[in-house]
Amino acid sequence: MFDSMHEECGVFGIFSNSSCDVARQTYIGLYALQHRGQESCGIVVNDDGLFNYHKDLGLVHEVFDKEALDALGQGQIAIGHVRYSTTGKSNRSNAQPLVVRHIKGPMSIAHNGNLINARELREEYEMKGMIFHNTNDTEVISYAITEQRIRSGSIEEAIEKAMYRIKGAYSLVVMSPSKLIAARDPNGFRPLSLARTADGYAIASETCAFDSVGAQFIRDVEPGEIVVIDKNGVRSIKTHCGSRGHICVFEYIYVARPDSVIEGSSVHKARLRAGKYLYREHPVEADVVIGVPDSGLDAALGFSQESGIPYGIGFTKNRYIGRTFIQPTQSERTNSVKIKLNAISNTVKGKRVVMIDDSIVRGTTSAKIVRLLRDAGATEVHVRISSPPFVSPCFFGIDIDSKENLIACKMSVSEICESIGADSLEYLSVENVKKLAGISHCDFCTGCFTGEYPMDTPKEMPKDKFESKITSGMQMQFNIN
Fold first, then answer.
1. Cα separation of 49 and 178, whole Å?
2. Distance of alpha carbon 372 from its chain centroid, rounded?
3. Does 144 or 463 have the greater pLDDT score?
4. Active-site hit among 9, 394, 442, 445
């Protein structure tokens, strides 16, 4: 079904103490988070309690032209979202942020992560007469919050109570008529950070988004914390705090941008460490070290620095295609691979090559890339992977939904090596993958490598667990201002 890891989603929110062009600032923030999701995106602007929004399928620059941004107008608060569908198919109805109209006022919400009890909650709410328009977890979360709004004095109290019900991974940005709220699940599976702007505050999945809008990073949102931003400033609710947290270690290996800092650790430095640990564990004699763009490049540099083997640029990448494996169907991914990479013969011809990549899931793309190097004249190709083999599904936002799609569950390392056509193949150990984020403020979830998770998990996590409940003909119009 897939051949490498998929990103999840990215969220961004901004609060200004005066009416300004928060739509364009959110647009820039989402542009910086584009690597986290390329299926759809959206922005909701709050102008003194009036919510204007625009969302659609496509990349940020495709969905938002000057006319669309102008139509959103000025405002004091905005939230945005880029999406990859870990739960719910790729269609307009699943684009985020969601906007909910309620007797206590409108609310907008965007979500990064994956709930493990979404099916049960959805069935419960449907039995109570609630109507669902989408097939993603975010609408389940919105109902969990609005259910509590009836009994709560404030929206942050409703979120605090709803967090007792929703289980799994969630980094949220929520907007009410007067507040911007961020919330992170008690395990802190997905990153979320707070920054100061010239006239307020910003929330984002990664710190690289703050750099793009000129915001100054303050701190990470703690696991279990609710951060409330309004005209009085920033305050925190820590009812659900207490755990050290278990962030997904694959944020450091692949998902996050290398210029981001997550839980106190540089992603770039984490990938350099991965390369250095790879050489210490699995040395090899070779003439050049190359990385598979983009997340393999830093690890390749670390491998080169540790080994003394020269680092080279082994591939040229078509920058206009985006991340190949974010394509939702196998046929799309296969076609993308054909035009995404090309080997640089001058780097590899007549040489023993060490090729560093971040992961192998199904193996077919790795085989194609090794073949590219052979065709370009490489005499040997030694593959090193900056993560351990994937042996279990992810329940918390990375799109690996069953063991049957994992090559490491079917073959030994030597068999995988033969199947991809490499001269040797080695993976980073679980022990060392836990050391990548050297000064991080948390522990790590390594369940996809070990089968051991920080919380109880269901037996399976079907990708499109709600699709049967939505008629195939359902379409909604979202270009509303």
1. 7
2. 29
3. 144
4. 9
CA 372, CA 375: separation in Å to the nearest integer? 5
Q: How far apart are CA 184 and CA 187, in angstroms?
A: 8
pTM for this predicted structure: 0.89
Nearest Cα to 274, choosing from 435, 479, 77? 435
Task: Compute the CA torsion angle 148, 152, 154, 155 (nearest 10 deg).
Answer: 0
Q: In 3D, which of 188, 251, 261 has the Cα closest to residue 223?
A: 188
* Separation between Cα atoms, residue 366 and residue 408, nearest integer Å: 13
Confidence of residue 471 (pLDDT cuts 50, 70, 90): very low
Q: How confident is the model at residue 90 (pLDDT cuts 50, 70, 90)?
A: low
pLDDT tens digit sequence for 362-383 = 888 899 999 999 999 999 999 9
Using alpha carbons only, give the angle 373, 375, 377 rounded to the nearest 5 degrees: 75
394 carries an active-site annotation: no
Question: Who has greater pLDDT, 479 or 365?
Answer: 365
How far apart are alpha carbons 245 and 142 in whole angstroms?
A: 24
Task: Judge whether 60 and 28 are in contact, CB under 8 Å.
Answer: no
Taken in order of first residue, the domains within the chain and their CATH numbers are: 9-245 (3.60.20.10), 261-450 (3.40.50.2020)
The DSSP result for 447-464, as a single string, is HHHHS--SS---S---TT
